[in-house]
Structure formats: C-alpha cells, structure tokens
Design brief:
Oligomer: heterotrimer
Largest interface: A-B, 106 and 91 residues
Number of helices of chain A: 18
Radius of gyration of chain A: 25 Å
Chains: A mainly alpha (about 575), B alpha+beta (about 260), C mainly alpha (about 260)
Number of strands of chain A: 4
Order of helices and strands of chain A: HEEHHHHHEEHHHHHHHHHHHH
Number of helices of chain B: 4
Distance between the termini of chain A: 43 Å
Strand order of the largest sheet of chain A: 1-2
Shape of chain A: globular
CATH class of the largest domain in chain B: Mainly Beta
CATH superfamily of the largest domain in chain B: Cupredoxins -  blue copper proteins
Largest sheet of chain A: 2 strands, antiparallel
CATH architecture of the largest domain in chain B: Sandwich
Order of helices and strands of chain B: HHHEEEEEEEEEEH
Strand order of the largest sheet of chain B: 3-2-1-5-8
Structural class of chain A: mainly alpha
Number of strands of chain B: 10
Largest sheet of chain B: 5 strands, mixed
CATH topology of the largest domain in chain B: Immunoglobulin-like
Structural class of chain B: alpha+beta
Number of domains of chain B: 2
Shape of chain B: elongated
C-alpha cells in the first residue's frame, strides 16, 4: 500500500465514478441532442421550401401554411440549426468526445459541470421544441429576434408565449454554453498529457479552444441582452423600446430613451462570434484530415495556429457589418467594413494552406478526405461572397436578400455540415469500432455536394434580382413588387427541387450507418494511419512513470503531423523518439 | 489602382449585365454601383474557379516528395496579392459609400417622408410650405384617413400630402426621411440600389436621384411580422412636368390617394 | 481490436476519472506549496511535464482556479454588456412631436445606505481573505497532515461564517436601498436611469446571492469533507469569487454614483 493513501485517502472510495459524467457518454449525448435538432430543422426547412415554391400547397393534416406559420418555421429552423446543430455538435459533441483523447487526458476537467451543461442544453432544446404548441404558436421574429417585434407581445402572433419560450430556451442555451466553454478551456489548459506542449496540439484542438474562448464573451453579452429583452416584455421597461410606438392601433408610451439598435449591437456582438464558433472546429479538422491523407505536414502549421486565433479575435470586432443599413452612423459602417475585410486575410491563409497541403500529394480519396475537400470547396464558395457583403455600399443593395441567405448557408451551414460528416466518417472507427462503407460514403458525398451547390448557388441570383429573405410567399402582391417577386418563382421551384434532392442525398448515409452498426466490429486500431493521440492503441506507460505509478500515462513525443518525406511512414505522437526526425 | 480597375469594370459591365440578372437601374448612382458590384461578382467567381482549379490540379499531379519548403513564397505572396485586391475593392467601395452617405442632400433636394407601419408604407410630401406638419401618435388612425397622426392644429399640416405610392420627379435629388411607427422595417428599392432600415423612434435620412421614369418595386427587407411579405409599395418616377401635375392634383383633393 | 477513446466504463481499470478518489499527486509529500528543488521538481511547467493527476499537491486547486477565472471573465462580460448599454442609453435622445431633441435621462440619486453596504462588503472581503489564508497556513496544514485534527478548517469555518453574515447583511442592505428608492417613487419601470440602476444592482445582488450559496457550500464541505485538497479548493475559489464580486461592486457603485 502506498503510504500516502494512509493519510488523505484513508477511505479510498471504490465505487465507480458516476457514469453520466464520462466525457464519451456526454459527447454522444450531445450528438444525440443535435441529431434531434437536425432532423427537426431539416423537416422544417423542407416545409418552407415547399410552401415557397407552391404557396397553395396544403400540408396534410394541417392545411395551408399561413404566413405567420412560415415565419415560425423560419425562426425554429434558424434557431435549431445554428444553436443546436452547428454549435452543439461540432463544439460540444465531437469536442467532448475528442478533446480529452487528442490531448492525452482521461477526462474533462470538470465532469460534473459537463453533465450540468448537457442538462441545460437538453432543457433548452425541449423548451424550444415546445414553443410551437403554445397559443399563438412559435415566435416569428427569426433567430435574431429584433425588437420591438420581439419585445411587444401584440406585435404579431407567436410573440407572446412562443417568444417567451424562445427567450427561455436561448437563455438556457447561453448558460449551458458558458459552463461547457469553461470546462473545455480548463481541460485544454490543464489536462494535456506530458509532452503535449501548445505547439504540438492538433489544429482541431486549437479550433475547439478558440471557439470556447469566443463562447465566453459572446454568450455572456447575450445573457445580458436577454435579461433586458425579458424585462422589456414583462416588467414595463424600455431598454429596447423608443418613447412612443403605435402597434396594432394601440399607442404605447415607454419611459426613457431606449433604442432597438441597442439590441442589434448586443445581439450581433454575440451573433457574429457565434457563427465562427460553429465553423472553427470544422476548419481545424479539415486541416488535420487533409494533412493525414496527403501524408504530409499541414502547410505552415504554426501560422495556422496563429490564424485560427486571429479569426477568433477579429470575429468579435466585426459585429457592425450586420448593421450597415440599420441606422448607424455611416462612419461606423466604414470602420466595420475595414475590420470585416481584414478577416478575408486569415481565411485566405487557411485556404492557401489547404491548397498547398494537398498540392501534388496524390492523397487517398477516402470518404473523410472527400468531405474535407468538400469543406474546402464550400468554404471558398461561401467565403468569397463575404468580402462583397463587407462593403457597406454593396450591402446597401444585398442586405437581407437571398444573396445573404446563400452566403451564410454555404459558409456556415453547408461547410459546417460537411465538417460534421467529415468528423463522423473520420472518427467512426474510433467511436464504434467499425468502418463506414466507403462506396456508400462516396455516393453520399457526391450527391450532397451536388445538392448543396444546386440549392444554394441559385439563391445568389434570387438575391441579386432583389428578392428579400423572410418572405412567406412570392405571390399575392400587387404592382411592380408583385411582378418582381413572381418572376422569381421558377427559380425558387428549382431551388426546392434541389433541396429535396439534397435531403434525399442523406439517405445513403443513414443506410450506411444502419448497415455498419449492425455489422461486426472490424476496424483496425488506426485505420487511417493517423498520427494524433486519439488513435493511440492504449495509454502507453513510459518506463520512468511505470515505476512510480499505479495507472498508465499517455505521453506525447512529437508534433501532430510527422511523416517521412515520401509519405510512406509516419511518426505518431504517442511513439517515443528512436531516430532523429526532421525539425519541427 | 483606379484606372486598370475602371477599365476592367467597364469590360465587366458589357459582359455581365444579363448574366447576373440585376433589375433595371433607375438612379444616378446606379451605374457606378452596378459596375462595382459586377466587378466584385466576377472577381469572386474568378477566385472560386481559381481555387477549385488549384485544388483539382493539386490532386491530379503526381506525387511530389515532401512538402513545400518556401513558406514565404507560397503563403505570403498570394496573401499580399489578395490583400491588395481586397484593399482596392474596399477603397472603391468606400468612395461610393462616402458619396452616398457621408454628405447630406443638396439643400434644394425634394423633401419626402416615408413611414413604415405593419404592413404598409405611407408617403408624405410637405406641400407648398415645404415644412412637414406635426404628427402625434395618439392621432394615428388609418381607418379615418389619418394614417400618420397628422395634428390638424398645426398650421404646417394642412397642406401635407399623404399617399400610398412614392411618386418622384425624374432628375431631381430627393431627401427622403424614413420613420417607422411600430417595429423595424426595411425600406428597399432594388431599382434605386437603395436600402435603409426604418427604426421606430428615429428619423433617418437618405438621399438619391431617380433618373428613369417608370414603376418600380418598394419592398420591406426587415422581418416585421406576419404580413412582412406583402409590405410592398410602388415607386413611380415621372417626368418633372407630369410630377408637378400629379402633386397639384393631390394637393387640391386634400391628400388622400 | 479497435482503439478506444479513453476507455468507457467497460473495463474497470484504475484510471483516475476523479482524482479525488486516489492519488492527490502529493507524491507522499504534505499538501503545501514547498518546492524542494530535488526529485525533478524544478518548478517548470507542471501541466506539460507530468501526467494529469500527478502534478503536485496543488494540481486540482490550480485547475479549479483556471475554471473560476474563466467563469469570472464571463460574469465580467455580462456586466460589460449591461454597463455599455447603460452608457449608450444615457447619451441617447429622441425627437418629440414638436421637433425638440429630448434626452429623458433622469439621474437616480443613490440611497446613502449604499455607502454603508459598500463598507460591509469590504469587511466581508477581509474576513473571507482571512478564511482563505487559514486554509494555506503551513503550520496548520502540517499539523493536519500528521493527523492532529482539522485546525485549518476550524479557523476557516469561523471566518467564513462571519463573511456569510456580512454578505447577508449586504444583501439586506441592497433590499433596503431598493425600498428607499421605491418610497421616493423611483421604480424599475420609471425611466431609463431607474431601469439600469435596478437591473445592474439586481444582477450584482444575484451574483452575490450565488456567492452566499457558495459560502454555505464551503462551510458544509469544511464540515464533511475528509480530503484537505477538496476543502482548500472550496474555500479558495469561493473567496476569490467573493473578492471579484466585491471589486465588481465597487466599480459598479462608482459608475452608478458618479457617472449618472
């Protein structure tokens, strides 16, 4: 018996740690939450597409989709997808599954807080999913919830109970994100295994780290804003309400000089970092997977670390570019245009690194590699319209048109989803002990890529023609506006067909999942010949530690991408150095 | 920076008018705006194609040994080029933005007020006294012909003209003041390449010069409630003589429609 | 066999999920911050040199402090959001029907009891610090390590209880301040200045309320926990949280009193 156990640990507790705090269990639970949100959000988007293309189409068992119901669909779709899919799944789902494994830790820093975050996320999701079923239906003010529409209960159907539930759901979500982010940051800072110096962290960990770092200011400020909005709705304050308003024929007087623009500032201070939180883990993973299949080091590895952090930093300085035409001073527009244009450079640096990494490497085009390439393609396609929208004068035309919808669906939604598929295909052997079928994976990839472009590229044209977003239907409007909208109906029908195709393209993936999970565990220990710690066969006990320890300690000896110049051999992070490697 | 980009942009204009499907343009600042937008779009498309070409070419090439050695050349040179490119675009855009927003309208510009409420746009002309009458929220009553709450006790309000249609003379600068009564609305006229949110509690000015007579769409571009999609109105640009006739006819009939 | 992520609950290996259950990393040394300089202990970056769970007696404390620091950063940002909204609203105006520019900000005169509350909070921070210092008193820690009772906890308990009393006094004082304002007919919904005064003080009071809950938690842990490190963590993080809320209060008070 070790002498120290006689003092402090005299009563060595033998019961196992509570199961529901294990990071693997929790990571899978986060992914399960996201899957529910993903299925719901996808179904809602298809309803929107069908209604937009055929406004007279009546939903079985429901009837016509009314304009306020359409806006409810918009609000729920946006909230579910952005918060519950694109934030939870990559950052907290895969983050929890992989961060401890990739840094060589046995757990997260605060397992019980981790479980608390999961419970808060689950509460948030169920609150949100309950909101369509209260009188008045779901909130209709979109995921941005601009007041006064969101602050005044009589401003529209759904702005009473539905809006309250939406607010509650987002508040739970913000709290959960803060808890989860603190846990993630503390884990990455303190739980790295011996040898895992900062520059040896895989870029995926850097992505999670930066996203967690961004989460804290973003969600804190959101919480403050939610508090004020709640107060405006129920405690007769006027943080976001002007002195007088006439809503539905009622004159509302408010004390004080509130302004709706204040909400816009606070919301976008959160909102812009939020979309970076959604895509940063995917950026990191793409770098690592491209390098793995190209069998060479990520091009300009250390610069990519700096670039990831720089994207995060710039991400909190650009919120005003959502407000070019919102009524700010035009000088503010110019300032935010500069900071926004500046982001194009670190983003381009990422793309250049990806291109240089695969250049002339003859990579193995496995399914994960294909999805990584798809991520690059979508990131470029969606990213290139960013500098266009960053110019205030152009935004004066394009703001809140379908062009913006196309932009953020390509760079955030589609790139984000490709990041998730990439993570799923790449880490499936690790999580389930089985390899997903490569043939089905290829079918899934090509169909999804085609569907994504067929759906979202034409939306640019609709936007350029002047079609605003959030329009429940394109018919039933008189005059030249009606003509403008009606002329876009054929294009919108095409987009709807493409969206249905895109949804159907996910069926091979579902089948692949079912088929693989019902098969035997056949995956080898390191099927992609990867170098990062999560593939280490079992925690390695270094001799000097084994002598003094009763548990195994993983150790890291090299950086994450060590390949021989011809790419045929590699040096995983967990293997002790036996020969001299090319300098890091 | 200016000349080559300008030449390029004129070339772009010729090629791309149809391709991108922009609506017809009816404002003085429109052509310069269109040139800049189309230049941007072609550059984006070009870079998209270039990135994909590089990606596919990189995949097709036979295996090179090892990675690149000259990071500076491969990373910083293209980055510098992109910085110059995006910087140039930003400077051009800034010049256009400055012209549109930094300065106020000409003092002789025509005064018009546009007010958004769920779910309609109302237009008000100040009348011969060139002063908008006082409005009071308590008096707002669209059903009684007073949608903006004009205060009849104010001497400036009697000659105000209120219309559901924005009618403007071609060739004269317009100083448009935007208000909203209830929630945020987005005043957008694609043909004028113009968009500005109307925020309750604020009066926001924009100015522009319509040039080509015709009927154009006015759309709401800020989600404002269930009727958002049908919050449309018409901009009618008339030759100056026709406009004067229209205005005098409305003044004599007391404003309504 | 496929590689597994850090093993799930399948095989009950002695991997330390919760370090509290076993080796506290002290390596047979007492849980004090002494660096002997020998045995490879050169004071380097512990987080990267040794395995998690084996980084000296202060490892869990350091982790908890890092978590606390990020939490406090988040709390700070909540107040940054509120205060920036306060400053923006204070300088905003509207134009009334008669085309007059109106800034309707009416500064709220703060109840004088807030000065008293500030003093109370300051004293509570001092007593809290005494409790924290007690947990790091080397002599007592050594006594405890030799099995001579729980001297650290005894002293910390007294000071924490005093802190708790002062903390509750502060909360009561804030309540009185709100009542006094309401007697002057300054309500939450009265005007913008009232909005922000009540919202900011209430948000702070909520955080202080959480602080008192933490104090109670720390007192309970001092009583019940057999692990010295656990008790030290509870007291240390609670007290740092308490200090942070105190500093935050002073900043908010200055803002509300002098920048209205």
């Amino acid at each position: 018996m070790n002498p120290r156990l006689t003092t402090e640990n005299s009563k060595l507790r033998t019961e196992p740690a509570p199961r529901f705090t294990h990071h693997r269990t929790l990571g899978l639970a986060y992914l399960a939450l996201s899957t529910i949100a993903l299925l719901a959000g996808t179904a809602l988007s298809l309803l929107m597409r069908l209604h937009l293309a055929w406004p007279a189409w009546s939903l079985p068992l429901h009837g016509l989709i009314l304009p306020e119901e359409y806006l409810g669909l918009v609000t729920l779709h946006g909230t579910l997808m952005l918060f519950f899919v694109l934030t939870i799944a990559p950052q907290w789902g895969f983050g929890n599954l992989l961060v401890p494994a990739q840094i060589g830790a046995s757990s997260m820093a605060f397992p019980r807080w981790n479980r608390a975050a999961l419970i808060l996320f689950a509460t948030a999701l169920s609150t949100l999913l309950a909101s369509p079923f209260v009188p008045g239906g779901s909130a209709i003010s979109g995921w941005t919830a601009y007041p006064p529409l969101s602050a005044i209960t009589i401003a529209g159907p759904g702005q009473a109970g539905g809006m309250d539930l939406w607010l509650a759901a987002i508040a739970f979500f913000a709290l959960a994100s803060l808890v989860a982010a603190v846990n993630m940051l503390a884990t990455i800072i303190t739980m790295r295994c011996p040898g895992m110096a900062w520059h040896r962290l895989p870029l995926t960990v850097w992505g999670w780290f930066t996203a967690a770092l961004l989460s804290i200011p973003a969600f804190s400020v959101l919480l403050a804003a939610l508090l004020m909005l709640f107060s405006d709705r129920h405690l007769h304050t006027s943080f976001f309400l002007p002195a007088t308003e006439v809503v539905n024929g009622l004159v509302l007087h408010s004390p004080g000089d509130g302004s709706p623009l204040l909400w816009l500032h606070l919301f976008w201070f959160f909102g812009h970092p939020e979309v970076y939180i959604a895509v940063l883990p995917g950026i990191g993973l793409t770098s690592m997977v491209l390098a793995n299949f190209a069998r060479r080091r990520v091009f300009a590895y250390r610069i990519m670390i700096a670039v990831t952090l720089l994207i995060g930093l710039l991400g909190i300085l650009v919120w005003g570019h959502h407000m070019f035409v919102a009524g700010l001073s035009p000088f503010a527009g110019s300032t935010f245009a500069i900071s926004t244009m500046a982001i194009a450079l670190p983003a381009s640096a990422e793309v250049l690194s990806w291109l240089a990494t695969v250049w002339g490497s003859k990579p193995r085009l496995t399914t994960p590699m294909l999805f990584a390439l798809g991520f690059v393609s979508l990131f470029v396609a969606g990213g290139l319209t960013g500098p266009i929208l960053a110019q205030p004068i152009l935004d004066q035309y394009l703001h809140n048109t379908m062009f913006v919808v196309a932009h953020f669906h390509l760079i955030m939604a589609m790139a984000g989803v490709f990041g998730l598929y990439l993570a799923t295909y790449y880490w499936f052997p690790l999580l389930a002990g089985r390899m997903l079928n490569d043939g089905l994976g290829r079918v899934h990839f090509y169909a999804t890529l085609l569907g994504a472009y067929a759906t979202f590229l034409p939306m640019h044209l609709a936007g350029l023609a002047g079609e605003p977003r959030h329009y429940a239907q394109l018919t039933g409007v008189a005059g030249p506006a009606g003509t403008l909208l009606k002329n876009l109906l054929p294009l919108q029908r095409h987009i709807t067909y493409a969206a249905i195709f895109l949804a159907a393209a996910q069926l091979p993936f579902v089948w692949n999942l079912v088929r693989t999970l019902s098969g035997p565990r056949t995956a080898s220990a390191n099927p992609w010949a990867a170098t990062t710690m999560e593939w280490a066969p079992a925690p390695v006990t270094p001799p000097e530690a084994a002598a003094s320890s009763h548990f195994a300690v993983p150790c890291v000896y090299v950086g994450p991408c060590e390949y021989s110049p011809d790419g045929n051999s590699f040096h995983p992070q967990w293997e002790p150095l036996t020969k001299v490697l090319p300098k890091e | 920076m200016g000349t080559p980009l300008n030449l390029a942009s004129i070339a772009c204009m010729r090629l791309s008018d149809r391709f991108w499907g922009l609506p017809p343009d009816a404002s003085l600042h429109g052509p310069a705006f269109d040139r800049h937008l189309l230049l941007n779009l072609w550059i984006a498309l070009g870079l998209l194609a270039l990135a994909h070409l590089l990606l596919l070419a990189g995949l097709a090439r036979r295996r090179r040994k090892g990675a690149f050695h000259s990071q500076a050349l491969l990373e910083f040179l293209p980055l510098a080029a992109l910085a110059v490119l995006f910087g140039g675009l930003a400077v051009r855009a800034e010049a256009l933005w400055r012209d549109a927003r930094y300065t106020g309208p000409d003092p002789a510009a025509m005064q018009v007020e546009v007010v958004g409420m769920q779910f309609a746009w109302y237009v008000r002309y100040p009348g011969p006294d060139a002063t908008f009458g006082r409005t009071r929220p308590e008096l707002v009553a669209p059903g009684e012909g007073n949608p903006l709450g004009l205060d009849p006790t104010d001497r400036h309000s009697s000659d105000d003209v209120i219309s559901g249609q924005l009618v403007l003379p071609a060739g004269r600068e317009v100083d448009l003041r935007l208000r909203a009564l209830d929630v945020i609305h987005g005043f957008s006229v694609p043909a004028l390449r113009l968009k500005q949110n109307a925020v309750p509690g604020q009066t926001i000015h924009v100015h522009f010069t319509p040039t080509t007579p015709g009927d154009y769409a006015i759309l709401c571009t800020q989600l404002c409630g269930a009727g958002h999609y049908r919050m449309a109105a018409t901009l009618r640009v008339l030759p100056p003589a026709d406009f004067a006739m229209w205005l005098s006819r409305h003044q004599s009939t007391g404003g309504e429609q | 066999m496929p590689a597994t992520l850090t093993p799930p609950q399948l095989e009950p290996r002695r991997v330390i999920d919760t370090p509290r259950d076993a080796d506290n990393g002290a390596g047979g040394r007492p849980p004090v911050d002494k660096r002997t300089g020998g045995n490879g202990d050169d004071g380097g970056d512990d987080f990267e040199r040794a395995a998690a769970g084996r980084r000296g007696p202060r490892e869990r404390l350091a982790t908890a402090r890092i978590g606390l620091a990020f939490s406090l950063f988040g709390i700070l940002l909540i107040f940054v959001g509120l205060v920036s909204a306060f400053l923006v609203t204070k300088s905003s105006y509207h134009v009334d029907a008669y085309d007059r520019v109106i800034n309707s900000w009416l500064p709220t005169a703060l109840p004088t009891i807030l000065w008293l509350n500030t003093a109370v909070l300051f004293i509570s921070s001092v007593t809290a610090e005494l409790a924290r210092r007690a947990m790091f008193h080397e002599q007592s820690i050594m006594d405890e390590w030799f099995g001579l009772g729980k001297p650290t906890s005894k002293r910390a308990t007294v000071w924490l209880a005093v802190t708790l009393v002062f903390g509750m006094l502060f909360l009561v004082g804030q309540w009185v301040a709100w009542l006094q304002l309401q007697m002057q007919r300054v309500y939450y919904a009265s005007n913008s200045s009232g909005h922000f005064f009540y919202l900011i003080t209430a948000a702070h009071a909520l955080h202080l309320f959480i602080g008192t809950a933490l104090l109670i938690g720390a007192l309970a842990v001092l009583r019940s926990s057999k692990q010295f490190a656990t008790r030290q963590i509870w007291v240390d993080t609670t007290v740092w949280y308490w200090h942070a809320m105190g500093v935050l209060w002073v900043a908010l008070f200055v803002l509300l009193d002098f920048f209205q």
